[in-house]
Amino acid sequence: MPQTHPAIDQPTPTSQCASVAVPPVELSLEERLAFINARMTLRLDEAAVEYEVNTAHIDTEPMDLADVVTVPIDTGPALLSELYPTPVAALLQRAHHRLLTGGWCKDVLADEDGARCMLGAIRAEAGGDRSLEADATTVLLDAIRRKFGDDVESVPSFNDAHGTGRIPIRMVNQAAHLADARGL
Questions:
Q1: Helices within the chain (DSSP H only)
Q2: What confidence tens digit (pLDDT) does each residue in 98-125 have?
Q3: Half-sphere exposure of 25 (CA within 13 A, CB side)
Q4: Rounded to whole angstroms, what are the CA distances from 89 to 99, 106, 115, 157, 178?
Q5: CA–CA dist 99, 104 (Å, integer)
Q6: Distance of alpha carbon 174 from alpha carbon 184, whole angstroms
Q7: What are the residue boundaries of the structural domains of the chain, listed by start?
Q8: Does position 12 have pLDDT exceeding 60, yes or no?
Q9: Is 27 exposed, middle or buried (0-12, 13-18, 19+ CB in 10 A)?
Q10: What is the separation of C-alpha 136 from the centre of its chain, rounded to a whole number of angstroms?
Q11: Of all residues in the chain, what percent carry a pLDDT higher than 90?
């Protein structure tokens, strides 16, 4: 007589158990998003490992920080070959050029390296003509307020509110275009 092993022998399903089908459960949006998030995370992890494996043989050299850090470009005198014909526009154009070539700074008119803020560049290019400097500053403030709203109090406050000179330098250039359009 064959020996039976109760722990190993599987009971035969009855007809009642075999006919019961479990209906699919409708998942909520949050549950579906959680599953998709888990699936995408898994796929991204697999892609990261695959990338590491595929690029492990590529020799790389450490990057020199001097290659990454940018300084004002030396554009030479060719950039100012044609000045605007009006005095305020020409002053703003020269101030823009000074900021591009000499550098931009904040919190002071000029720093120890010779970089200047917006007002410092205008003042340096005005050559002591306070009336011309005032007119250029007025046009510059108007150009700033057109772009950024009437909440801007002054040119120095706008200049000092930025961490880089990209926007202030661009605004000096736009002010030069505005002064030329106004015939100033």
A1: 15-18, 29-55, 65-68, 87-102, 118-126, 130-148, 155-160, 166-182
A2: 999 999 998 898 889 889 999 999 999 9
A3: 5
A4: 15, 23, 21, 22, 8
A5: 5
A6: 14
A7: 28-60, 73-182
A8: no
A9: exposed
A10: 29
A11: 43
